[in-house]
Prior knowledge:
The protein has one domain: Spore Coat Polysaccharide Biosynthesis Protein SpsA, Chain A. It is built from 7 helices and 10 strands. It has helices at residues 29-39, 54-62, 76-88, 108-119, 146-149, 158-164, 184-191, and strands at residues 2-7, 23-24, 27-28, 44-50, 66-70, 95-98, 126-131, 134-135, 139-142, 168-171. Strands 1, 4, 5, 6, 7, 8, 9 and 10 form an 8-stranded mixed beta sheet that branches. Strands 2-3 form a two-stranded antiparallel ribbon. Strand 2 (23-24) and strand 3 (27-28) form a beta hairpin. The termini are far apart.
Amino acid sequence: MRLAIIPAAGRSSRLGRSKALVSFRGSVVLEVIAGLLRRGGAERLVAVAAAGDETLVDRCGKWGLDVAVNHHPQTGMLGSIQIGIRHATPRDSDLVIICPVDFPAVHSATIRALYAAVDERAAPTTAVPVCDERRGHPLALSGALVPEIQTLDPKVGLRELLDRHPPIEVPVDDRGIHSDLDDWTDYARLLS
């Protein structure tokens, strides 16, 4: 199965409101991300929402996303990823993409390329997209590596997994892999 985890439990303090529900390309950010992940081959999507964010939980249901709830969003993105992984319970044979909610401009072709790069390897591996000689998001990995995510040091995060399993760099023509939505300046840039 091709699984996608979408961490969306952050406070969005610089934006001042939930990134997942900001208007974007005729919809809202999370729905756009769900669409690009599906077009990229994801078969099951798990969004991780903060406890109490009933609006986001309700919208996820309408969009056909599974929802995992992070009762301790102060644990950061790694904590949300760990909760999403536990909720999804991937198998060794699964392919997993971790796509933060603040990367709505990634192309579905990038998702396909990442899944293919991991699927082509016999050994468990990780993969990241590269554009203009810079790595970006999202991260793809073999299901066999998922248990290691639960053991990562919160101070280091996913970088620890990438240090253990250096990623395949997948060349893509997609500047969206670098287009992080952190504040209203980023938002204006993404819309232009």
